[in-house]
Design a protein that fits this description.
mainly alpha
């Protein structure tokens, strides 16, 4: 996910390619929160106090953060790893391997996650497989067809609970865990399933018509109510410097 301020533009065609080189690296790519290219200003009076502060911030403070998971997110010129915005911990590795790609420009900054206690990888995989199981059976539970209401999600989780009879404990656990994800990400099982895909993308069997309806539902004004959007995941609300606060949350 590429982020720019509303009055900024990309003037280096190699920037996105360099960012993707880091994020798609098979060894360290999944441990990166983001790759950013902080804004710099050319031709500014060297005696201007604001320009001097920028020099100190970028050339001293930002580089000094390299030893503690990298520099913070500064609000623009940043390519995010989507799971980082979802609040997920990075995978655990015994030691940091060397880069496999030959691109480390002096003008880009990377942030590596990993300070928090890692979540169980096996548990994460089981949740993904359970969600996959749910997506295949959600249309036929208890003989009901679940269709989208005009102002609600495509699949109603309360109705799904009524159709649990005949399912084993593993499948019941899957459907009940869906309610916990709903409280975090909102009432869109399709979107929730996509956040858990290890390599990104969408669950199997998802059709374009359903995706369009779900997208309209997710971007609606009231979707984030009673969820953790803006509090623990995504851009953090309630601050005029939401970009810095969001970066702190990621660290």
């Amino acid at each position: 996910m590429f982020n720019l301020d509303c009055d900024h533009y990309l003037n280096n065609s190699k920037a996105v390619r360099e960012a993707m080189c880091f994020l798609m690296d098979p060894q360290i790519g999944k441990k990166l929160c983001y790759v950013q290219f902080p804004q710099r200003f050319d031709g500014i009076d060297r005696h201007d106090r604001y320009a001097n502060r920028n020099v100190v911030f970028f050339d001293i403070n930002m580089k000094g953060l390299d030893g503690i998971q990298g520099p913070v997110y500064v609000g623009t010129g940043c390519v995010f790893n989507r799971p980082a915005l979802y609040g997920y911990d990075p995978p655990v590795s015994e030691k940091r391997p060397k880069m496999t790609c030959d691109c480390w420009p002096s003008w880009c900054c990377c942030c590596c996650g990993g300070s928090r206690k890692p979540k169980s990888k096996s548990k994460k995989k089981s949740i993904k497989s359970l969600l996959g199981l749910y997506s295949k059976k959600k249309r036929t539970m208890n003989g009901k067809n679940y269709t989208r209401k005009p102002s609600g999600p495509v699949f109603d989780l309360e109705e799904i609970e009524e159709g649990l009879e005949g399912y084993d404990e593993l499948e019941k656990s899957s459907l009940m865990s869906q309610k916990n994800f709903e409280k975090r990400f909102g009432q869109s099982p399709v979107f929730i399933a996509s956040t858990l895909m290890e390599d990104g993308g969408l669950p199997e069997g998802t059709n374009p018509t359903t995706l369009i309806k779900e997208a309209i539902h997710v971007i609606s004004c009231g979707y984030e109510e009673k969820t953790e959007w803006g509090k623990e995941i995504g851009w953090i609300y309630g601050s005029v410097t939401e970009d810095i606060l969001t970066g702190f949350k990621m660290h």
